[in-house]
Amino acid sequence: MIKYIINIYKVGLSVNRKRFSLSTTHIIMLGFLAVILIGSILLSLPISAKDGQAVSYIDALFTATTATCVTGLVTLPTATAWSVFGQVVILLLIQIGGLGVITVLSGFMVFLQKKMSISDRLLIQDSFNLNSLSGLVRFVRKVIAGTLIVEGIGALLYMTVFVPKFGPRGIWISVFNSVSAFCNAGMDIIGENSLIDYAANPVINAVTCALIILGGIGYIVWWDVIRVLSSFKSKKMRVFLDLTLHSKLAVCATLGFILLGTVAFLIFEYNNPETIGDMSFLDKLQASFFQSVTTRTAGFATVSQKGLSNASCLVSLFLMFIGGSPVGTAGGIKTVTICVIIAAAIAAIKGKNDVCLFHRTLSKEAVGKACAVCCMSFIILFISSILLSFCTEADAMDIIYETVSATATVGLSRDLTPSLGLFGKVIIIVTMYLGRIGPISLAVALNSGKKRMNIIKDPVENISVG
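-> structure tokens emitted (466 positions)
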């Protein structure tokens, strides 16, 4: 698979050097599309199916898309529909999708000790939406090494539960779950009920939540926290203050939304017998915390999403749409984006010209990009909801839950995915792809190309807003 992707990558670079060149945005988009198509072909082979009978291509394409886009919505149960070969293909797609196609290809180039051209470095910069070309090779090495280390630790911790229960197969289950959780994919090979059977297991809950948070908070925050801790002076107690603005926003928003979700789910579901109503208080708290974390685009479930109250569903939709943090494995519009939008709204209400956070003024480009990403994600969500409503007679809440989950690459469903028809599957496939690619591509497009001076401007005229 990697060989074919590298060839496509090289073709993209060669085309990029011509006058009708592909932009880095186009290459990233085509890279993800190539991985999905190759994965769908492999999954459509009889060897990928558990019973030896090839699944329909639309289901293979759906599975390849949900794995590469690290979403987790499935039309066929991952544990019972796919053979070991099929599960390996799915795991590779999740890993490539979580890290990013360009990161994986760049990692192979680094491993083979091949020199990276300026075009290669621009691709890496745009795929991570970084502001500088310096230190990119070292950044890729750190990302891949850090990912493998965290996933390895997660797998070992999972084994303490899964190996005693499943025997040697528990090793494979642990590895699969660890990669899926860190990449915020939400796919598992335990059974058809996700992690509902482990709702009261503290090890599974703690390890899964930790992997989801570490993968979703973003690599930039990792290195920034490590930088601050490595130069930490016990007398000053300035760990948080020494973080960059990006890290402060990501950490505060992540903790704030997790706390908000936990409290909301605990209150709204406390007496709900279909979810946590029959649990002890500690188990209710644990399940509420997990639900709050998994809605950050992870897709695992320890309670039935179909059984959630309407209030909890609305909270879930809000948290899913926001998602994780930039330069990580999560989807959604991102925590930093929503912080910028809220700060811009507050500044407008107060009549201020500048948008400030933590005593730092944000650039107009950052504010504009945040608004653009949010608007584009909402447009994708709105159109997909309308189309899916036209194709299915399902409940409106189930449809919106499905489309938000696909747009934000979450993977949680109110049992609608398996019942989708052909057109419904196609709509969700496109939505997952646009959800994974759209905001990233828009951010790259807004940050690429040469800036042109507007010598002649159109006349200014006031309008009424709000």
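Residues 13-20 have pLDDT under 50 and may be disordered.
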